[in-house]
Write a structure and sequence with these properties.
This protein is of the alpha/beta class and about 280 residues long. It has two domains: about 30 residues, no CATH class; about 220 residues, Alpha-Beta Complex (2-enoyl-CoA Hydratase, Chain A, domain 1), CATH 3.90.226. It has nine helices and nine strands. Strands 3-4-5-6-7-8-9 form a seven-stranded mixed beta sheet, sandwiched between helices. A two-stranded antiparallel ribbon has the order 1-2. Helix 4 packs parallel to helix 5. The longest helix is centred in the middle third of the chain and has 20 residues. The chain is globular, with a radius of gyration of 21 Å. Bound molecules: zinc ion.
C-alpha cells in the first residue's frame, strides 16, 4: 500500500512561474526562445525549419508597412447543419485565437503593387474551409478583379470543414469560379502553399495559381499518406507530398524561403502588373 502514498519524484511546482510557451524545441533538437523565433519569422536559424506562422504575422511580413486594410472581419460561421457542439467549438476558437474564422483577407500593397491578400491561419480549426473561409476568399478575389489588383492567397489547411458538409465543398467551386473570372480580366493570381496544404483546399484554389510557390518542406497533398497507402496497397516514394516532391513533379513552380517571400512576390508582380504610379493608387476604383 505504501507505494500509492509515495510523493511524485518531481514536485509539480518545480517550474512554477516559467511560462509554458517560452521555449520551442525544433525538429533539429535546437531549443529556441520564443522571442528569437518571432524575430526570425518563425524559422529555425539552425536548420531552416518553417514553423506555423500566425496569419497576422504573415501579413506584416508580406505587405508594405501600414498598407493592409482588412475586409469582412465580422463574418463568422453559423451552424447550418445543426452539427453537435459546432457553435461551442467555433466560439472557443474565436476566443483562443482572436480570429473569427480560418482566413484573414484584405487589400494591401506589396512594393507598391496593389493586391488583395487572403491568409489562412492553421490555428483556427486546423485551417479548415467552411462557408466563411470560402466566402471571404471569394470576396477578396472579386474585389481584386473589380479594382484591378493581383490576388495572393496563402494556404494552410486540413481541407474542407466536415461540420458544414456540402456547404464546405461548394466553396471549392465558388473560389475557383471567381479565380476564373479574375483570369479572364487578365489579372494575376499567385498561390503560396504552406505547411500543411491538404484536402479540398489543395484540390481547389491552392494549386491553380498562375504561379504556385511553396515554403520549404511543407506538406502538400489531398488525402494523407496513410490513407493512400491503405487504399492503393503500394509503398509511397521517398519525399512524397513534400513541396520539394511537388516541384519535381510540376505542381509547384518554386520553393521560396519565408524570409525571401516578399521580395519574390515584388519581383513577380513587377513582371505581371503595370508599374504602380508614383502618386499612389489614384487609378484604382
Ligand atoms: Zn531547427
Amino acid at each position: 500500500m505504501g507505494i500509492f502514498k509515495k510523493p511524485p519524484l518531481r514536485g509539480g511546482k518545480r517550474n512554477a512561474g516559467v511560462p509554458d510557451d517560452l521555449w520551442t524545441k525544433c525538429q533539429c533538437g535546437e531549443l529556441i526562445h520564443t522571442l528569437d523565433l518571432k524575430q526570425h519569422a518563425y524559422v529555425c536559424a539552425h536548420c531552416n525549419h518553417h514553423f506555423l506562422l500566425p496569419g497576422r504575422d504573415r501579413i506584416e511580413l508580406l505587405t508594405d508597412a501600414g498598407s493592409f486594410e482588412e475586409m469582412d472581419h465580422g463574418l463568422y460561421s453559423a451552424n447550418p447543419l445543426g452539427f453537435a457542439n459546432y457553435e461551442r467549438k467555433t466560439a472557443d476558437l474565436r476566443e483562443k485565437t482572436g480570429l473569427n474564422d480560418a482566413v484573414i483577407s484584405g487589400r494591401a500593397t506589396i512594393d507598391s503593387f496593389p493586391v488583395t491578400l487572403a491568409v489562412m491561419d492553421f490555428k483556427y480549426f486546423a485551417g479548415s474551409m467552411g462557408s466563411v473561409v470560402g466566402e471571404k476568399i471569394t470576396r477578396a478575389i472579386e474585389t481584386a478583379t473589380r479594382e484591378k489588383r493581383a490576388v495572393i492567397i496563402v494556404s494552410a489547411s486540413s481541407g474542407a470543414r466536415m461540420q458544414e458538409g456540402m456547404l464546405s465543398l461548394m466553396q471549392m467551386a465558388k473560389t475557383c469560379g471567381a479565380l476564373s473570372r479574375h483570369q479572364e480580366a487578365a489579372l494575376p493570381y499567385i498561390s503560396i502553399l504552406t505547411h500543411p496544404t491538404t484536402g479540398g483546399v489543395t484540390a481547389s484554389f491552392a494549386t491553380i495559381g498562375d504561379i504556385n510557390l511553396a515554403e520549404p518542406g511543407c506538406m502538400i497533398g489531398f488525402a494523407g499518406p496513410r490513407v493512400i497507402k491503405e487504399t492503393t496497397h503500394q509503398d509511397l516514394p521517398k519525399g512524397f507530398q513534400t513541396a520539394e516532391f511537388m516541384v519535381e513533379h510540376g505542381l509547384v513552380d518554386a520553393i521560396v524561403d519565408r524570409t525571401k517571400m516578399r521580395t519574390k512576390l515584388a519581383e513577380l508582380l513587377s513582371y505581371l502588373m503595370p508599374q504602380p504610379s508614383l502618386s499612389g493608387q489614384e487609378t484604382l476604383g
